[in-house]
């Protein structure tokens, strides 16, 4: 008994498109060449009334291998993940863990007091809190109660 396998181009096209949507659009870095996809790390940046906050994913990187600077309104984060010494002696079947240096720079939306920043590193995540400069923090103006307002309410 012989079994014939029929080639179905529409089935192949659909599978390819499914992979593109699953891996490409939801994770676009998978479509980039390896060097470009490993050139950056993902971050979230937001602001509150008093601070600019940042969280960055830096898995596998030691806190001593992270450098954070603020110059003017530019925040720069540099991270380094050196390759193990014994790497040259290995024959890899799969090699997806990135090694090397990465750097990202962000223009901050407001002036911050970098000397009062708080940085912590937990489980491969960098958390940075940058207090806004006093001159850009929201100010609340209180309305004074008393005589001489010039306006009177009538009942």
Describe this structure in words.
The chain is α+β, with helices and mostly antiparallel strands. It folds into 2 domains: about 10-35, no CATH class; about 40-135, Sandwich (Immunoglobulin-like), CATH 2.60.40. It has helices spanning about 10-25, 35; strands at about 45, 50-55, 65-70, 75-80, 100-105, 120, 125-130. The strands form 2 sheets. Strands 1-2-7-6 form a 4-stranded antiparallel sheet, with no helix packed on it. Strand 1 (about 45) and strand 2 form a beta hairpin. The longest helix has 17 residues, at about 10-25. It is flat and about 90 Å long. Residues about 35-40 have low confidence and may be disordered.
Q: What is the radius of gyration?
A: 27 Å
Number of strands: 7
Overall 3D shape? flat
- Strand residue content: 25-35%
Largest β sheet strand count, sense and barrel closure: 4 strands, antiparallel
Low-confidence stretches: 33-38
Number of domains: 2
Q: Roughly how many Å apart are the termini?
A: 101 Å
Helix content: 10-25%
What's the CATH class label of the largest domain?
A: Mainly Beta
Number of separate helices: 2
Strand order of the largest sheet: 1-2-7-6
Q: Helix-strand pattern, N to C?
A: HHEEEEEEE
CATH architecture of the largest domain: Sandwich
The helix-and-strand class reads alpha+beta
Q: If you consult CATH, what is the topology of the largest domain?
A: Immunoglobulin-like
The overall pLDDT average reads 80
